[in-house]
Write a structure and sequence with these properties.
Radius of gyration of chain A: 19 Å
Oligomer: homodimer
CATH topology of the largest domain in chain A: Phosphoribosyl-aminoimidazole Synthetase, Chain A, domain 2
Order of helices and strands of chain A: HEEEHEHEEEHHEHEHEHE
Number of helices of chain A: 8
């Protein structure tokens, strides 16, 4: 009896082994929030590519209003583009829907997608509708661009950097916030322009799962002050660490540049907190133990 | 009781109405084989975007060897990039697989994807694996590029143009060819460089469904000589017209330039036929009646 992959990491390693090497235009392939491509002829600008899927019964419960499903479907990859410091451009929407869907079901889904597209300046340029013999399945491919010097990866954190998060964490599912969150597109673009920011990613699987990924890519350890984690109302520290779907930004900041960044952030985004919650340590030091977030294969 | 969309066309109209206008870089949005984007700073070159989904039980039967599923999944959007006269670049692979999949199932799927990526020069740069509570679902987003003057659309056919197809048609399902076809990537790129070619698309839903789409986008009618349709062994003319998944190229050719194109094609692609099967007529003339190909909503 063959074994199953034990983690997303093991699966990624297995997948990489079957694929040919990527071409020289690929600066970041499988493994970060988005793929990063050097564009021929566009010296200062990089292309970002992201795809993200939603499955009924996994990412939302059956019976969820379809306009909310549509909003969430487009806002999730928008959060990834934001986490690279980029701006979204073009989307392709794939929908596998039950054959029973009537026109108002289709309209509701695309009303939610359209609302997010309008709000964040995305052009929907194609996609596909197919029949699903099972649950509703959505997959959105999104392109974006980022000035080369603004691009933020998971791998840039250095020992001594402050670990910060935007907004508040926890309870996205129980509050329904996972269906109507606002991806931090403007904030991500702003932070992309800041030299003080050394690494960035979005919080989709939960701090307890995502921070170790950032630390691993940066070959660093981390220490967190759990009491400093900004929490949504009626959320425990444990929920703030292990609940997923916050769609806030997790970033590391050069500590010498923090005071200046903090004061300019307050002017640029007066209604959204940017909170230091810990510090990056050298590789090999003991990390703060965190309850793991979501890993769909674990 | 709300009604269901009666056709893909009606559904597309409904979808378009819910979405905001596209930005000025979009030259071709929803409706052609690929989206076509003007790239900032790349004067002579256009960006192509395509997404394509495969659903178990719809596009392949349960139990199909997974390496063949992987091959087909990447080769389908490759056929669309080819049909624009373009070259493929980067792919994002989304797989929703049953939780029961073991490592050799994953390996087989990605072996097929990897084989196609290697053969046609595609870099796989990202994607996602999620759990499916239902059937296997694959969605592939593919980028490509095409020199601006090589781009072929469905809308360029003119009255008097010859209608041609590459290769032979019919029987892709019963022969199993729908699992191991070769997308016409080199041939499409070659035809893209030919001024004689006025419109092009790939044959995925069957000639009887796809030719009317090309004619509609070109505001033309058509006449076909059914006896001229090149058929696979043991296929009837009816199957050549209405079977889907041929993944050959359907193109229209300026008749004055046909003799020269034909002779150079014979040198460039000696092993693949390029066959005239009819002629484009002015808008409003009577079209040859064709048995419709596949429309998943009809």
């Amino acid at each position: 009896m063959k074994r199953k992959p034990q983690s997303e990491e093991e699966l990624l390693t297995l997948i990489r082994r079957e694929l040919p090497p990527v071409d020289s235009s690929v600066m970041t392939g499988i493994g970060d929030d988005c793929a990063v491509i050097r564009s021929a002829g566009r010296a200062g600008s990089l292309e970002l590519l992201k795809t993200d899927a939603l499955v009924e019964g996994i990412h939302f419960i059956p019976g969820t209003p379809l306009d909310k499903v549509g909003w969430k479907a487009l806002c999730r990859p928008l959060s990834d583009i934001a986490s690279m410091g980029g701006s979204p451009l073009h989307a392709l929407i794939t929908v596998a829907a039950p054959a029973t869907w009537n026109t108002s079901a289709w309209r509701a889904l695309y009303r939610g997608i359209g609302k997010a597209a309008r709000q964040f300046g995305v052009s929907v340029v194609g996609g596909e509708t197919v029949q699903s013999p099972g649950p509703l399945f959505l997959s959105i491919a999104l392109t974006g661009s980022v000035p080369k010097r603004n691009r933020k990866l998971r791998s840039g954190a250095k020992s001594g950097d402050l670990i910060c998060v935007t907004g508040k964490l926890g309870g996205a599912f129980k509050s329904g916030r996972h269906l109507n969150f606002h991806p931090r597109v403007a904030e991500g673009r702003w932070l992309g322009g800041e030299n003080a920011v050394t690494a960035m990613m979005d919080l989709s699987d939960g701090l307890g799962s995502d921070l170790p990924k950032l630390a691993r890519e940066s070959h660093c350890s981390f220490r967190i002050a759990p009491d400093c984690i900004p929490l949504h109302k009626e959320c425990s520290v444990g929920e703030g660490i292990s609940d997923g779907e916050d769609y806030e930004l997790l970033l590391t900041v050069n500590p010498r540049l923090w005071p200046s960044l903090q004061s300019r952030w307050g002017q640029a985004s007066p209604r959204l907190a940017l909170t230091p919650i810990g510090v990056i340590l050298a590789h090999g030091e003991q990390c703060t133990p965190l309850t793991k977030g979501y890993d769909h294969l674990a």
